[in-house]
Amino acid sequence: MINQLARNIIQTYELETSQSLEDFPETPDYQEIPDHPEAKKVMKKYFSTVIDHFEKHVSDNEQKTHQITSYAHCK
């Protein structure tokens, strides 16, 4: 779920702004991490990075991105 929300935020932002996030960190391959608690920590840290970035950089023009970010922040 975390991975899907992060992907949804990024894709929605790219669609709304017509900009690619080339310098944004790639999604970690959590399925390659054998230790489930460690994989969960890695994904939570990545998700936190996504939320923090978009809370700071989303303007009023990116309403859908803002809605998803607000929803995701509550999760």
Instruction: Provide the low-confidence segments as ranges.
Output: none
> Which range best describes the helical content: under 10%, 10-25%, 25-40%, 40-55%, 55-70% or over 70%?
55-70%
* Tally of alpha and pi helices: 3
Large-scale geometry: elongated
Head-to-tail CA distance between termini: 10 Å
Largest β-sheet summary: none
Report the C-alpha radius of gyration, rounded: 13 Å
SSE arrangement, N to C: HHH
Structural class: mainly alpha
Count of strand segments: 0
Mean pLDDT value:
86
Residue fraction in strands:
under 5%
Please provide a written account of the structure.
The protein has 75 residues and is an all-alpha fold. It has a domain at 39-75. The chain is 67% helix and 0% strand. The protein has three helices and no strands. α1 (2-17) runs parallel beside α2 (36-57) and α1 (2-17) runs antiparallel to α3 (63-74). The mean pLDDT is 86.
What's the structural blueprint in terms of helices and strands?
Elements: H1 2-17, H2 36-57, H3 63-74
